[in-house]
Write a sequence for this structure.
C-alpha cells in the first residue's frame, strides 16, 4: 500500500519534471539554417579566379633567359620517384658514401586492388581538402593605384575595420556576416546597415572617411575557424580582404611548480613501451631511479602474459596481446600529465650523461616542441639519427616524401643542439604537442620516423648530442645463446622485410599521407 | 683460444665500423646558426607599429553619435564576471527560467598561493604566445594610391611572386629568406640576386615588370610553420605582404573500405571507460552486439580488481587503480584505428533507435568533425545537452568563458541536426580530430564540457536528436537498496561538490586555459 502511494507520487514528480523540461527545451529563439556540406564555398572559388593576376599581353613578348638553378625550385606540381644510381657495392658502402634510394609506395598493394585504392584515396583527400581549405588561403592581389586603403591581413571578427579613401560613395559586401556602424557621423547616408551589403555616401569626403572608421563586421554564419572575404568598392575600383573568423584559441598551460632549478619530477614523465623484455625494463627502471628517484614512469605493455610491474611512481598499463609498437607509444603519452614527456625504449640505460635538465632547459628557452638526445651503443658509437624531411608536391599520384640525414641550423646559445625534422627514439617533448600529433596505432611493428612525418608543419624539432642514454647491446656475441624471451621478441619486433609490417607502413604512407614515393639516404 | 681469436676479430670489426661511422657523420656542409629563443621577432613588432593606421587629425574633430548596441560588440579587452541576479527561488526555477550564474575561478586556490599561481600562469602564457604567434597574424594595411601591385594573401614559400608597378627602380627586402630571379630579362639591372635585399632597375618599364614576374622567394631560415614579411618599395611608396613558410601539411586519410552502404564495423570503433560497473558494461556490450555484432569495442578500465572482459572485437585495457575519467577516455581513443570513434558511457544501452549509420552519414556529407546524439533517461526524457561556448577576451586576469544552452544553426539537409559547440556524452567523431584535442588526463572525476573547451576553434561540432541511446536508470527508487559496486562507484564518481574534483576543474580552467571566470545557464 505504502509502496503503491510512493510509486504514484514518483510518477507525478517525474511527469512534472518532464513537462517542465519540455517547456524549457522549447526553442525560444528562431535559428537560421546553415550549409555545412562538403562543397568548396562559392566565394572561395569566385575570388580565386577574380584575384589571380591576369596575363599582361604587353609583357608576354619581352624576351628572357631562364635560370634553371632557380626555376627548378618553383613548385612544379609533379614529382618523379628516382634515387641516385648505384656505384660499386662495397661492404659499408652505404655508410661511407650514402646514396639516395627511392621507394615507390603503390607496391604496397596488389596490382588488382591498386586502382580501387587510388580511387578511395582520391575521394578521402578531396573531402579532407574541403574541410581544411578556407578563404584565408586564397591568393589576393592589391591592385596598383587603387584609391582604397584597407587592411590586407590580421583583421579578426568583431574588430572594427579601418578604411580611408577618396570617393564620395562606397559599397562594402561581406558573405558570412553583417556590417554595422558603431557610430553615426553627420552628413553621411548609410544604406544596408546591419546587412551583408552596406553602402555609404556623403558630399563631405572627411565625414565619409570618419564614418568608415566606425564600420564593424559581425560574423553571423557560425564556423569555428574560417575567414570571410569582404569586398570593398568604389567607382571603378575594388579591393578584397579576408576577415579571420574563429573561436579564441585557448592555450594548454602546465603548472611547472615553483621557480628555482628545474624540478624534473614535476616537469617530466618518462614513457616507454615494453613487450616481453621485463629484464631489460627492470634495468631501465633501476638506472632511472639512480638519478631521478621520484620521476613518474609510464609503461605500456602488450605482452601475452603480463607480469605486474609496481612500485612508487610506476604506472603499468596492460594492453591486449600484441597490440603493437605505436599503439603502445600512443597509450603511454595519452596518460602523461606533466608539461614534458621523455620517450625512451625499454632497453635503454640511464647514465651520468643522461642529464634531462639540459633537455628541459632547451625546451624552456626556445620555441622548440621536441628535442632529441643521443644513444650510445655498446660499441661506443653514439647516434643522434638526425633527419631532414621535405615534401615535394605531386599531382593525382600523390606527393613525394624526401628524407635525408642532417639538419637545418645550429641553435644559437646551444652549440650542441641543432634544428631538424626528425630525431632518434630518445627525446623530450611538450606533452600537448606529442599528444596532438600522436603515434598512429595502425603502425604495429617497426616504425619511428612516421611520427615525425605526421608532425611535419606542427612539430618544431631539435637535437642535442650532449645528453646521452646507453643502449643495451644489440650485438649478439656468437658464443652467447639468445634468451627465450629475446627470441620471441625478435620474432615480433623484427619481422622479415617482405612481411605485412613493411606493407602496412608503405600502405599508410601511400594512403593516409597520400605519398607516391619515398626517397632517403 | 678460439674464443680469444673471435674477440679480437670482433674488436677489429667494431673499430672499423666505428671509424667508418665517424667518417660518415663528419659534417659535409656548413650549417648556419639560428635564433629560436623565445622572443617575439623584431620584424613582427616593427611592422605592427609601422602598419597601424595613423590617426588622421582632419578626421578626429568630426562629430559622431555612438551606437551602444554595436559599439558594445567591439573587443573591449576586459571582461567582468557577473551572472543574472536571481529572482524567487522556486523548485525547478533553474529548469523553468534558466538563469546565468557566474563562477570566479581564482577561488580554486588559497588566497596565499593565488599571487604565485597568477605569476606562473602569466609566465607560461607569455611563452605560449611567443611560440604560437607568427608575422602572419600582424595587421597590415594596403595604402591608397600606391603604384605597387602585389599579393596580400596566399603566397607560399618557393612560389614565384607576381608584381606590377610603374616606376623604374624597385627594392624588395625579405627577412627569413633570399630573393632570386628565375629568369633574366634584357635591359634590367639586378642587384642583390640571391640575397635578402634585391633591387631592380631599368629604363624600360615593361621589361622591369616582366622581370618582376620572375622574382622568387626561397626560405633560408628554417621554421616548420611561420611567415616572412616581405617589403616592397619604390620612391616614396612602400608595401608589405607576408609569405607563408611551412612544411606541406600531410593529411591523415582513412581507408573506409569499398563503396556501397556504410559498413559501420569498418568505419566505427566504440570507445568507453568503465570503473567497477561490470554488470552495466555487460548490458551495454550485449545491446551493441544485438545491432552491430562485429564493431570493435575498446574498454578502458581503472577498477581496483579488474575482471577480464574478453570476446570477439573486444579490446580491454587495464589501467592503474583510479587513474580517472578523462585519463580513461584518452586511453580509449588513443587506440582507435578506424576513421570514426563513437563515445558511449558504460551505462548506456543500444536500441533500435541507435542508428550509427545516420551519424556516419552526417560526418561523411558535411564538414563537421563531431556529431552528438540524444540520450533517453528511464523517465522518457531525452537530452541532447547542446551548448554554445564563447570566449570574451580579458586582460592579465585572463579571459571569460561563457556557456549557454542552445546552438547556432540548423543544418541544411539534416532537419534533426544543428551546429553547436558542445554536446552530450554520446557522440561520433573523426578519430584524428578527437585524438588531436584529447581528453586531459588531469581531469580525474566529473568532467565533460572541458573536452569541448579544449576543442574550441578546431572542432566543428553538430548535434542530432534522432539518433538515441538509452541510459540505464539513475533514479534510485527509495525501496530498492543500492548495490555495493554502485555505492563504491558513486563515492568515486560523484565526490561532494566542495571536494578536490571541483577545485581541480576550476584550477585547470584558471591555469591551463587561462580563464578568470565561467558563466553558464
Amino acid at each position: 500500500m505504502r509502496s503503491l502511494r510512493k510509486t504514484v507520487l514518483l510518477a507525478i514528480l517525474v511527469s512534472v519534471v518532464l513537462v517542465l523540461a519540455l517547456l524549457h527545451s522549447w526553442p525560444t529563439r528562431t535559428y537560421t539554417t546553415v550549409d555545412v556540406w562538403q562543397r568548396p564555398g562559392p566565394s572561395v572559388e569566385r575570388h580565386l579566379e577574380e584575384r589571380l593576376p591576369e596575363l599582361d599581353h604587353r609583357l608576354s613578348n619581352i624576351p628572357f633567359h631562364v635560370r634553371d638553378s632557380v626555376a627548378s625550385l618553383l613548385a612544379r606540381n609533379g614529382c618523379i620517384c628516382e634515387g641516385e644510381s648505384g656505384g660499386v657495392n662495397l661492404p659499408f658502402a652505404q655508410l661511407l658514401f650514402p646514396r639516395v634510394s627511392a621507394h615507390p609506395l603503390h607496391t604496397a598493394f596488389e596490382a588488382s586492388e591498386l586502382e580501387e585504392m587510388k580511387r578511395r584515396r582520391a575521394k578521402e583527400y578531396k573531402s579532407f581538402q574541403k574541410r581544411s581549405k578556407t578563404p584565408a588561403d586564397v591568393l589576393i592581389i592589391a591592385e596598383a593605384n587603387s584609391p582604397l586603403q584597407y587592411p590586407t591581413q590580421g583583421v579578426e571578427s568583431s574588430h572594427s575595420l579601418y578604411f580611408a579613401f577618396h570617393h564620395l560613395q562606397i559599397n562594402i559586401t561581406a558573405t558570412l556576416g553583417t556590417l554595422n556602424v558603431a557610430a553615426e557621423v553627420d552628413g553621411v547616408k548609410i544604406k544596408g546597415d546591419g546587412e551583408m551589403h552596406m553602402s555609404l555616401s556623403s558630399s563631405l569626403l572627411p565625414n565619409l572617411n570618419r564614418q568608415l572608421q566606425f564600420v564593424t563586421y559581425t560574423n553571423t554564419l557560425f564556423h569555428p575557424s574560417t575567414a570571410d572575404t569582404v569586398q570593398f568598392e568604389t567607382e571603378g575600383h575594388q579591393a578584397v580582404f579576408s576577415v579571420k573568423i574563429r573561436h579564441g584559441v585557448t592555450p594548454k598551460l602546465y603548472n611547472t611548480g615553483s621557480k628555482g632549478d628545474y624540478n624534473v619530477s614535476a616537469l617530466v614523465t618518462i614513457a616507454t613501451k615494453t613487450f616481453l623484455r621485463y629484464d631489460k625494463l627492470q634495468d631501465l627502471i633501476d638506472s632511472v631511479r639512480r638519478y631521478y628517484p621520484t620521476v613518474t614512469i609510464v609503461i605500456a605493455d602488450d605482452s601475452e602474459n603480463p607480469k605486474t610491474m609496481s612500485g612508487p611512481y610506476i604506472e603499468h598499463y596492460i594492453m591486449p596481446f600484441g597490440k603493437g609498437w605505436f599503439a603502445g607509444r600512443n597509450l603511454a603519452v595519452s596518460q602523461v600529465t606533466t608539461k614534458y614527456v621523455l620517450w625512451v625504449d625499454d632497453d635503454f640505460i640511464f647514465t651520468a650523461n643522461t642529464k634531462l635538465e639540459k633537455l628541459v632547459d632547451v625546451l624552456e628557452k626556445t620555441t622548440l616542441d621536441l628535442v632529441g638526445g643521443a644513444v650510445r651503443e655498446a660499441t661506443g658509437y653514439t647516434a643522434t639519427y638526425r633527419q631532414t624531411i621535405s615534401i615535394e608536391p605531386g599531382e593525382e599520384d600523390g606527393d613525394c616524401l624526401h628524407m635525408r640525414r642532417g639538419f637545418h641550423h645550429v641553435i644559437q646559445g646551444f652549440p650542441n643542439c641543432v634544428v631538424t625534422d626528425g630525431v632518434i627514439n630518445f627525446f623530450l617533448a611538450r606533452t600537448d604537442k606529442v599528444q596532438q600529433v600522436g603515434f598512429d596505432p595502425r603502425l604495429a611493428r617497426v616504425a619511428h620516423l612516421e611520427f615525425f612525418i605526421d608532425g611535419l608543419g606542427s612539430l618544431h624539432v631539435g637535437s642535442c648530442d650532449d645528453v646521452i642514454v646507453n643502449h643495451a647491446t644489440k650485438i649478439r656475441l656468437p658464443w652467447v645463446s639468445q634468451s627465450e624471451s629475446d627470441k620471441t621478441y625478435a620474432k615480433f619486433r623484427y619481422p622479415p622485410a617482405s612481411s605485412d609490417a613493411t606493407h602496412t607502413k608503405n600502405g599508410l604512407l601511400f594512403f593516409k599521407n597520400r605519398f607516391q614515393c619515398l626517397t632517403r639516404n
User: Anything to note?
Assistant: Chain B touches chain A through 178 residues (CB under 8 Å). The longest helix of chain B spans residues 2-25. The radius of gyration of chain B is 31 Å. Confidence is low (pLDDT under 50) at residues 40-55 of chain B.
